[in-house]
Amino acid sequence: MWKRILTLFIARTLEFFRDKTTLLWNLLFPFFIIVGLSFVFNQENQTLYKVGVVSIDNNSSFEQFNYLKEEKQVDFIFIKSSEEGMEKLSHHRIELLVNLNTKEYWINSSSPKGDIVEKLLFAKNFERNTEFTKQTVKAEKISYVEWLFPGILGMNMMFNSLFGVGYVVVRYRKNGVLKRISVTPTRPFEFLAAQVLSRMFVISITTSIVYLGCSLLYNFENRGSYFDLFAVLILGGFSMISLGLLVAARSSSEEFADGILNIITWPMIIFSEVWFSLEGTNPVVQKISKIFPLTHIVESARKIMNDGKGLADISEHLLILIITSAVFLTLGSLLFKWHKT
């Protein structure tokens, strides 16, 4: 069994590396995104600022401070506790934190946006705001590109997994390759295992090259453990590959598979905080984002790279990735067929 799996693994891996166009695309696409967005967002010129508000009774407690909402450039987000607000403030998810219960507000000393929002909200009404006590929270600044980087790695992993497995297996079925393999002693489990191992090997190589290149180019810092980051890479890649195998289990049309894969990938790109934070969006949107494996991959990678967290801190995300991998792979194995209908 293992000899057949190894043979299929080598064949599929060599096939990928011989396709120079696909190989270059997987390596260069993340660089293009990082370079382009770092240029676009190099100047902190967004006009919308987010202010966290801690209040016992949300809107009713905020009525007496309606003058704070005079600035249209500011979006107010209600937060349950000061601790939660401090975490968001220190990681630049909000620019300023106001506690209406204690009459205090905090800014991040390393964030230029905090000073701007403070002037927008309090400078005009200085006399009315003397009841508020200013506090500062010191935190290491995380640039937008550094925040974006884990999302780009996750997105590249997603495309590499879904299209590199799902699309290829469908092409094999359409071209009769699977039909020829089916008359050999190879069992479906062995074929699928070889596909998973081959794609995991390819993802590990390409993601490592992208990580190293971007780190040298932008001097990114991984504040956590490389072992923990690699564990997220393995579990995340396995979950995505399993999803790709599920899509390809019975599809015999490349056009159909391409459509299904695009339907899956683009919502994940939008709702998994690859490009921007969902802070302040509709709570329903934030709940929907938790459905996608990419969300848990990106959040886990950001907590490790940006916050220095460990596996225990991201155990919930890892558990979800393990469960989704098991579900996708089991369904894919049960539904898998060698021949076209």
| Number of individual domains | 2
Structural class: alpha/beta
Strand content: 5-15%
Please give the count of helices.
Answer: 13
Order of H and E elements: HHEHEHEEHEHHHHHHHH
Low-confidence stretches: 40-47
Structure description:
Helix content is 63%, strand content 8%. With 341 residues, it is α/β, with parallel strands linked by helices. The chain has two domains: 2-39 and 143-335, no CATH class; 49-137, no CATH class. The longest helix has 32 residues, at 144-175. The protein is elongated. Residues 40-47 have low confidence and may be disordered.
In short:
With 341 residues, the protein is of the alpha/beta class. Helices cover 63% and strands 8% of the residues. Strands 2-1-3-4-5 form a five-stranded mixed sheet, sandwiched between helices.
